[in-house]
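Intended use. Records like the one below are meant for learning the mapping from a protein sequence to its folded structure. Do not use them to infer anything beyond what is encoded.
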Amino acid sequence: MLGLALSCVIFISSVGLFNIISAVFLERIMAYSDDAKLAKQQKRLKDKRIWYDNIAKFINIMLQAQEKVERDRFGDILRESLTVSHGLSLRGLRAVTLDALTKKRF
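Structure written out for the chain above:
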């Protein structure tokens, strides 16, 4: 009987010890994953090319929306009229000349 009780104590202690070891291991993996994700995000935020491309897309979308916008009888913008093309890029923005911008009514 004493042997059975001792075997149960050893088994429970072993399972508990391995549980603690695996928890520490998983905690370190999760911390490394969070650090890697944060470093990747900071790298993207510091990349000027990504920022310029996204700002160019935003300006292009705003210009397209201004051209295609339709208003209802109260002067509110109709949501259905705000569709833009999906092929937006910096090249599309470069095609907009200064003369074209000065003729736009904002």
